[in-house]
Fold each of these.
Amino acid sequence: MLLEIECGICYCSFNAARRCPRELHCKHSFCESCLRSLSRALAGRTVIDCPLCRHPTVLPGEGCVRAQLRVDECALERLVAAGVLDQDQEDEEEEMEEVKEDPEKESVVSRTVERGMVRRCWKKVWRAISGKTTDQRVDDCMTSDELRNLALMSCYML
């Protein structure tokens, strides 16, 4: 399940840095890092095709995603409301303080920090997949008929 606080391409939570939510001209939002990966230079301009609707967003100049695309403020508001934006920044600050305290153990701490970040990401994914309670998980399961209908609909879309 895709949350509205995550990028629809990489499924990482938005933040105020490299994963800042940027809005394409079609009003779909993705993180800045993914949009840079999707962008292509064409006749002195940058073109980004929306991965959802294929609407092309043409930007004057090359490599100007940050300057030309507006920040999706609604997504940032949802991040603040969910407490994800503040939590991620606090976690990063704590991790950086740990590294600065003992330079001899910097490499060990950096590997531990990376593992912690990976663990937190997997926890977010697991919560999004499984839900918070077991009752929700049972109610949210697809039946065989629903799965068959979904497969048929996807065939018709191709």
Amino acid sequence: MKLIKLSQVMAKTTLSKSTIYRLIKTSGFPQPKKLSLRAVAWLEDEIDEWIVSRGCKNDSSPSNSISTLQAYLLLNGGNKYE
């Protein structure tokens, strides 16, 4: 179980801070865990699962295909063929 900070969540998801917090309120984006009065972090596994779940929609648009590929590469340590 690894905890990651907001900056890492933003990098993994390519979402802005405001978008992340809006998704927490309006959809199934993982809730942060409170570490102290002013600090929160997310479970990395929950963020990874959310990324993968977003790529499973029946959307064949190029942007969705790229997002799915990016999620796959993030979760599998990059391109193994380089």
